[in-house]
Amino acid sequence: MNVGWLLDSSAIGLAHRKEVAARLRPMLRAGVLYTCPVLDLEALATAGTPAAYRSMRADRQQVYRSVPFGPAVGERALGLQSRLGRAEGGGVRPRDLLVAATALEHDLVVLHHHPAFGVIAGVSELDHRPVADLNTLE
């Protein structure tokens, strides 16, 4: 049974919306939100200075639980890509495959706002939930 949520950057991008913030707040308090190296790299790439980078990294380490990448994550991502095939996988980025593979490897639910995770779930056991209606753009 899944008890943790791998918080994709697409969901974080909507955290300014009242309904999304209301959903994320109790999850943060409960300590059930996770991150992984690809999500940390994306978030930390926005830091404007070395000091901001250090601060953001410390904040992420304090707020989220972290799960590692290992050889199994890479193999799962390659397997997902292979199953998707050329036509289905057109809208699925390599980072989406890595996030999905990480969630599968660590038995986490991907909390997101990107249609790629539904596509990946179509060829795998991926458990995922959009943080808001996917027809909502922001």
Question: What does this protein look like?
Answer:
- β4 (about 110), α7 (about 115-120) and β5 form a beta-alpha-beta unit.
- The chain is built from seven helices and five strands.
- α5 (about 70-90) packs across α6.
- A five-stranded parallel sheet has the order 3-2-1-4-5, sandwiched between helices.
- It has one domain: Rossmann fold (3-Layer(aba) Sandwich).
- The chain is of the alpha/beta class and about 140 residues long.
- Keywords: Hydrolase, Magnesium, Metal-binding, Nuclease, Toxin-antitoxin system.
- Pfam families: PIN (PF01850).
- It comes from Kineosporia succinea.
- Its cofactor is Mg(2+).
Characteristic terms for this protein:
138 residues; alpha/beta; 5 strands
Write a brief structural summary.
The protein has 138 residues and is an alpha/beta fold.
Residue runs with pLDDT of under 50 for 5 or more positions: none
Q: Give the overall silhouette.
A: globular
Number of strands: 5
Overall SS class: alpha/beta
CATH architecture: 3-Layer(aba) Sandwich
Q: How many helical elements? A: 7
Return the CATH class. Answer: Alpha Beta
Strand order of the largest sheet: 3-2-1-4-5
Largest sheet: 5 strands, parallel
The CA-CA distance between the termini, in Å, is 31 Å
Cα-based radius of gyration, to the nearest Å: 15 Å
Averaging pLDDT over every residue, what do you get?
A: 92
Any idea what the CATH superfamily is called? 5'-nuclease
How many structural domains in the coordinates?
1
Strand content: 5-15%
Helix and strand string, N-terminal first?
EHHEHHEHHEHE
